[in-house]
Amino acid sequence: MRPRGAFAVAGSLAIALFVAACGGDDGDETASASEGETTPAGDELTPAEAGSEHDLAGVCPDPIVMQQDWQPEAEHGAMYHLVGPGYQIDADAKTVTGPLVVGDVDTGVSVEVRPGGSTVGFQPVAALMYLDEDILIGAVNTDYAISSSGEQPVTAVVAPLNISPQILMWDPETYPDAESLVDVAAEGATVVTAGDTIQKLLLSQGIIDESQMDTGYEGTPARFVGDPSILQQGFISAEPYIYEHEVSNWGRPIAAQLLYEVGFTIYPEPYAVRTADIEEERDCLEKLVPILQQSQIDYIDDPAETNELIVELVGEYNTGWEYTPGVAEFAVDAMLEHGIVANDPETGVLGAFDLERVQQIIDTFAPILDTADIKPDLVPEDLVTNEFLDESISLD
Questions:
Q1: What mean pLDDT is predicted for residues 89-107?
Q2: For the region Disordered, what residue ranges are annotated (predicted)?
């Protein structure tokens, strides 16, 4: 389960845990640090032609360090799909490092993917990016990018997910006539989340009142199973499967609605860089961003091998996070079914940002975020850019 809310908060152990999370080395044949097992060195890979669109050597940092906001899961598939054969898992540092690949093409640099969540003391990704400037790419939700825009500005360069998979879920047996979360909330249901951004959004719209707000969600099914009268946060790409197939004392369907449908319109986990690095890393981003776009499409088209890696990483990291092959497979189908992974509706480009939507996000969330670090006169161009996208890349 995910105890994360829509807006992450820093933990007191973040710096110590983050320092421990840095790692990764190079080599022709690499081994899992936890088990000592070797993985194939990637002899089947074809080196990118010098100077070609996939040749990142000498253009991008090596390794390209990418920071996720949570433990490995299918929603992060585009990032993990970049990791080619010969990868190394460092179970102590909680990293995976391997050749950065596009299909069977070796781009000439390696990629290191770091998980978030408990691994880094729940430190927000933008804060990690400013703590360790080795991180080039971070997955930063738009609401957090707004909240950090004054002191830790980041600019998103591609949106692998078009809308948020966040849901509020309820028990259809407790609320047999409910057709939406608004119907359930109207009956006085307590809204249980890990943070208060979702609740403040619903409060600002008059969907709930303050008496219904509860930020005590701990990421386990115990509360929902014990009190099926509540509305509880989750992901459309996980909880419906988990509760029906993996929570033995529930074992039946849940009902849910995407929060996107009631105004939670943030871009979830878009890939961002520190704003000041846009110019410094321009040559790299011009080549890397189309690769990131294509990686999402390639993952969705053929997720099996990457899902195996994701499940392997969860086991090797052993953080208490659980993730099964069944959830991973379900997640891919759910992300397609519900438009989580989709082309930008306005342009048809995978990974593009709608600036009108970003302005609406600013208008909605800036007033309800509890922070003084929002940049004055914030505009969409402070948060996102489409300039590095390949407009020919679309999901069929």
A1: 97
A2: 26-58
What is the enclosing helix (H) or strand (E) of 297?
helix 282-301
Q: Is 75 exposed, middle or buried (0-12, 13-18, 19+ CB in 10 A)?
A: buried
Residue 161: both structure tokens together: 């997910």
Q: If you search the block for the tokens 């309800």, which residue do you land on?
A: 368
Report the percent of the chain where pLDDT is more than 90.
Answer: 87
- Would you give the DSSP letter of residue 86? S
Query: SS3 of 302, please?
Result: coil
The token pair at 218 is 């701990």
DSSP character at residue 343: B
Determine if the peptide bond prior to 63 is cis (ω within 30°). Answer: yes
Say if residue 6's pLDDT is above 90: no
Beta strands across the sheet bearing 231-235: 213-214, 191-192, 231-235, 166-170, 255-258
Mean pLDDT over residues 328-334, rounded? 98
The whole-angstrom separation of Cα 282 and Cα 42 is 29
> What structural domains and CATH numbers belong to the chain?
14-162+267-383 (3.40.190.10), 166-262 (3.40.190)
Crossing angle (nearest 10°) for helices 282-301 and 325-337: 100
- Contact predicate 169/237, CB 8 Å: no
Q: What is the spatial distance between Cα 54 and Cα 32, in angstroms, rounded to a whole number?
A: 27
What type of residue sits at position 71? Q
CA nearest 229: which of 204, 263, 192? 192
- Predicted confidence band of residue 373 (pLDDT cuts 50, 70, 90): confident
The CA distance from 118 to 16, in Å, is 12
What's the CA dihedral at 78, 79, 82, 88 to 10 degrees? -140
DSSP β-ladder status, 64-67 and 105-114? parallel
Are 264 and 201 in contact by the 8 Å Cβ rule? The answer is yes
